[in-house]
Amino acid sequence: MSLTNTEQTQSDSAKPDQTQSAPLFTRSVEDVSQQFDTDAQLGLSQAEAEQRLTKYGPNQLSETHGVAIIPLFLRQLKNPLLIVLFFGALLSFYIQHYVDAFAITAIILINATISFMQEFKAQRSMDALREMAAPKCWVKRDGEWQNLAAADLVPGDLIKLETGTIIPADARLVETVQIQIDESALTGESDPVRKNAKPLSDANLILADQINMCFMSTSVIHGYATAIVTGTGMNTEVGHIAELMESGEQRLTPLQLRIKNMSHILILAALVIVAIIMAMGFFQGMNLSNMSSIGISLAVAAIPEGLPTVVTIVLTMGAYQMMRSNALAKHLTSVETLGSTTVICSDKTGTLTQNKMQVQKIWLGGESLRVDGVGYEPKGQFYNDDGQPIEAHTHKPLMKMLKMSALCSDTRLVETDGQYSIHGLPTEGAIVVAAAKAKVTKEQLLNDYDIEHSFPFDSSRKMMSVIVRDEDNQAWLYVKGAPDVIMSRCDYMVRQGETVNFSGYQKDAHEVTSEFGRQALRTLAIAFRKLSEEDLESPDTTLETQLTLKGIYGIIDPPRPEATQAVKDCHSAGIGVVMITGDHVETAKAIALQMHIIDNANSSSLTGAELNELDDQQLYDCVKNIRVFARVTPEHKLRIVHALQSHQEVVAMTGDGVNDAPALRAADIGVAMGISGTGVAKESADLILLDDNFKTIVTAVREGRRIYDNIRKFIRQALTANVSEVSALLFAFVLISATVDESGNMLVMLTLAPLMILWVNLVSDGIPALALGVDGAENDVMKRQPRASNESFFADHLSHRIVIRGLAMGALTYGVFISAINQDYSSEYAQTLAFMTLIFGQLFHIFDARTFTTIYQRNPFSNPALLWAVAGSAALSISMVYWSWGQTVLGTTAVALEHLLIVIALSALPTLILSGIKQLFKVKWL
């Protein structure tokens, strides 16, 4: 293909002082060709390319492999709580309590299997970076263009880029024809970047400003170019991002840290209690088998066996609820982590904004109009200066400007399955959509107009123009371009329907452009000229003079309509919102001001260049006061996230581009856009918003807080049962409720057998506790400040409530047991009564555990699942008393009905009395 209007690099006057170490974008094409030992016109030979492929390897990103199935399962067994149970099972085998041993082993395997299945389903490698790579590309080898696999590219290859091309590698442009590249997914820059091949003088330019380079996985949306490949595979900018992702440290989530810390506390408490009891028993001459049984019972009683399983199931149910609200949790722990979030770092383009340019304001020579609408959908209302809606088709100056704009545009508005998109330049697409909102389309206009000549946009003229002939056979030149350029060629202006001399209103027009700029609006001017037949004898761009200014468009990538309210909701929930973008600082601050991320235009901000001047300590000192970061790179985003985390912030990072991936992975929770998000962002994220709606984050925060509350409620319920069980056993030991064996050794009578304790923990208590996972949110859930990342599960006096209620129920359980013994009932009968007392005491307590106030302040019927679970648990537990199989396994025996009714009534007393005292006397710690 021959090139015309090419922007060559052979401008020696533009060459910087070059050395071999200078960045490629500062060097001429000749220097780059010499460095890569290639020909900028003919490319490499096939033989040389094959040698380089052997040396550099294929043009692919390195693969990462997930954890294999067996190691993944074994990893679940590392849970400290399960390790304690494992030793309990071994000890049961040793003393030949085989039923206990098999039951405990089964519990261990069930816990590990459930956790394994959830993590295995969540773990899938999409290998998204490699999916983004172009599968084929045009490469010149041996002087001929060949369509080869992108994986076969090597440094020094000459490639051809055309409209629609996904760029297969990093490359230095050689020749360009009006080329524009969409780099938004890589740099965060929302506008297409106009490229040329001239060397640049500044060696410190960030990626977005390297306008003579192109990068893997970005796409050409307009124009043509050739380029020399400078980097392949992992030696590309995308490859660099992949390395950042792989090297990112995997942090434990707040929930994982809390469970880990609580597990250590429980294990230590269990070991200390068992050691003390075993030592005392040994010195008192107790039977070894009896002491082992006591030790096993205490260990089982002190460990909430169901905790790993129930937390996993509760998180799974929460993940399902979130998915119904369009938030897909890839990792279960991310369900709760979002509820702990204190700061949301959000990318601007495509996350807070729509990534769809829209005309927002129109200036018609003295008259200002406003346009609304969403995205590229051709629906919207026009408003006048007073904010009153107007009918576009009755407004002749507006209709004339829209018709000129539509005719002077190459971009098309396309509908596919009810969804609208544009084919062409985003800024040009904005005015095409604005015209469509007034029912004006180029296809319709061509029924009355003929386009005779078109002069495409180029970087030197900064404008586009067309010559059209209307239905009266009159020829017109319609021009569209940068306002400063257009206005410099205008002699006239249309003002209130009349053509006036532009010199008298030039100041007004420039002020409009400046005001639009202050509002972060990009501007396009529309002008026209009436042509004579003489003008048409040799039409060219010299006709673009003596123009009449028609109007100016104010264009912006607007905030998502629902995102501003979502930001306000985050603030009311105590969550800070930080904008981190690759866009210009003025644009970023204007959007941030509109969305109430900052309070005024003078709020502090930082650019990427300014960030480079700060060391980590300086960034740490200022990061909490900055709400807008602009012109940043992936490394900057990582530094910002890490600086916030150094302040003990729980950081959520939202984004949709390749450039967001490292920070998404480094953040405590990464949130990607499901529709517009790149595959890389989705793979790196913990949470995916299926509707690309920033408001969904607020819903997810609420859900995360609800889930955390419910986990705390379960922990309160489970640990209260554990304290009850341990104290019931300790009372028997301390008060020497004992008999003597045949050898004269003392035997302590167990208030509860080990399998009875397992039954309480996993069935009678575990099943209703699961129903807490679907418990509704407390009324103040979104009015609280975020909890500290190091806050314990036992904060807000939860530990006091657990111990006090646990001791009360434990004392009652032991009291029922010893009362039966003193009335000469068998130990099995007494254990069964104690078993029933503990079970029903926990079933009553669960209604108190489901609220952070008291049982009297929350409707007990508001959670039907809990009512069914309590009823089912009670029925199952009673069946284990009267069913022969249950008697064999648990060691229970049938009890008299009146005794059962008495213990059920007694078991309600601790909850009712303690809750009554708390409510009556306002005792917070009770």
Explain what the structure shows:
The relative contact order is 0.09. The longest helix has about 40 residues, at about 695-735. The strands form five sheets. Strands 10, 11, 12, 13, 16, 17, 18, 19, 20, 21 and 22 form an eleven-stranded mixed sheet that branches. The model is unreliable at about 1-20 and about 125-135 (pLDDT under 50). Helices cover about 45% and strands about 15% of the residues. Helix 4 (about 80-95) runs antiparallel to helix 5 and helix 30 runs antiparallel to helix 31 (about 865-880). Helix 24 (about 660-665) links the parallel strand 26 (about 650-655) and strand 27. The protein is elongated, with a radius of gyration of 36 Å. By secondary structure, the protein is α+β, with helices and mostly antiparallel strands. It is built from 34 helices and 30 strands.
SSE arrangement:
Layout: H1 29-35, H2 46-56, H3 69-76, H4 80-94, H5 98-122, H6 128-132, E1 136-141, E2 144-149, E3 158-162, E4 170-182, H7 184-187, E5 193-194, E6 213-214, E7 219-231, H8 237-247, H9 254-283, H10 288-302, H11 307-324, E8 327-329, H12 332-340, E9 343-346, H13 348-352, E10 358-363, E11 368-371, E12 382-383, E13 389-390, H14 396-407, E14 412-416, E15 419-423, H15 426-437, H16 442-445, E16 450-455, E17 463-469, E18 475-481, H17 483-488, E19 490-495, E20 498-501, H18 506-518, E21 522-531, E22 547-556, H19 563-572, E23 576-580, H20 585-594, E24 605-607, H21 608-612, H22 616-622, E25 628-630, H23 634-646, E26 651-655, H24 661-666, E27 669-673, H25 679-684, E28 687-689, H26 695-734, E29 738-740, E30 746-748, H27 754-764, H28 766-771, H29 798-822, H30 827-849, H31 864-882, H32 884-890, H33 897-907, H34 909-921
Parallel strand pairs: 9-23, 9-26, 19-22, 23-25, 24-25, 26-27, 27-28
Antiparallel strand pairs: 1-2, 1-3, 3-7, 4-5, 4-6, 4-7, 8-28, 10-11, 10-22, 11-12, 12-13, 14-15, 16-17, 17-18, 18-21, 19-20, 21-22, 29-30
Helix pairs in contact: 3-5, 4-5, 4-10, 5-11, 9-10, 10-26, 10-27, 11-12, 11-26, 12-26, 14-15, 19-26, 26-29, 26-30, 27-30, 29-30, 30-31, 30-33, 30-34, 31-32
